[in-house]
Design a protein that fits this description.
288 residues; disordered C terminus; nine-stranded mixed β-sheet; globular; Rossmann fold; 26% strand; alpha/beta
């Protein structure tokens, strides 16, 4: 039986300093984190920023204030179902300086699953690959299933690393097209949440809000250790403000509740990427 002294809390910083300071250093390692966001509200920018900033973070930059251990991921593993590596890097280079991107590239392991994804869609392979195939009949092939390819990649690379799955929305669509039942997809995420503890890194799974019906979205959020919600808040008659709040998170939500933190105002800027701004406190409590 494991001794209590062995149950040390290890944290992985997000790399977003204003957030890490609010959550005493970072997120619990071994977490499956759902980044649930409205269009343009910042969930993918959060993932980009965390990946780039962690690539540039030194081991002694941040120390948890609660006696836990800080852990920096060894590699950044990015899985994409729709976008190529060039597409992702093009988006990132519009935000961050070259010196930060260089260190990011040194740690990046990119998995492009777009060809397999499009095997289950009405899309000529020549549109998304270098192969000289132009007819719709060329779509069907004998490639490994999308979930199997994803599982193989994770088994080989996930341990001690930051994983970004971009996006769960695409994975759900592909599974529908290939006749994988919803209950089987949920079983996959339940297994992913469990094995994440063994890998002891962090997994960001990006999901568009309001894409699935409420029941299915709730089932997915139940599978995750943490759910960060990225939304828009109306500010005045003609303006909106990006906000982020923690819907659930094992080992983290109690700290935010203790500090009366309700949500964070956020923005995406050059060259810092995703940033936290004002902290919104729960109504009825005094400001800090």
């Amino acid at each position: 039986m494991m001794e209590i002294d062995e149950l040390k809390l290890r944290k992985i910083p997000t790399g977003i300093s204003s957030l890490d300071s609010a959550i005493q250093g970072g997120l619990p390692s071994g977490s499956l984190v759902l980044l649930l966001g409205d269009a343009g509200a910042g969930n993918i920018e959060f993932a980009y920023t965390s990946a780039v900033k962690l690539s540039n973070l030194k081991d002694d930059t941040i120390r948890p204030s609660d006696g836990g251990e800080l852990k920096i991921p060894e590699k950044i593993c990015y899985v994409s179902f729709m976008k190529s590596e060039t597409d992702i890097l093009s988006e990132i280079t519009r935000i961050f300086p070259k010196q930060d991107i260089k260190l990011f590239l040194d740690k990046l392991i990119f998995k492009d699953l777009s060809e397999t994804y499009h095997h289950y869609a009405i899309t000529p392979l020549s549109w998304i690959s270098e192969e000289d195939q132009t007819t719709l009949t060329s779509i069907k092939g004998t490639n490994l299933g999308l979930l199997e390819e994803l599982i193989n990649f994770l088994n080989e690379n996930a341990k001690d690393n930051l994983i970004i799955i971009d996006s769960i929305t695409n994975l759900v669509r592909a599974c529908y097209s290939s006749s994988i039942e919803w209950k089987d997809l949920i079983a996959f995420f339940e297994g992913l949440q469990r094995v994440a503890k063994k890998w002891d890194g962090i997994i960001y799974a990006v999901l568009g809000a309001k894409i699935l019906d409420e029941n299915k979205e709730a089932e997915l959020t139940d599978c995750a250790d943490g759910v960060l919600v990225f939304d828009w808040m109306q500010k005045g008659e003609f303006s909106r403000q990006q906000v982020m709040y923690v819907k659930k998170f094992r080992g983290l939500l109690p700290q935010l509740t203790k500090d009366n933190i309700s949500k964070f105002e956020t923005s995406v800027t050059m060259p810092n990427g995703f940033e936290m701004k004002n902290v919104k406190l729960i109504r009825g409590h005094n400001s800090r």
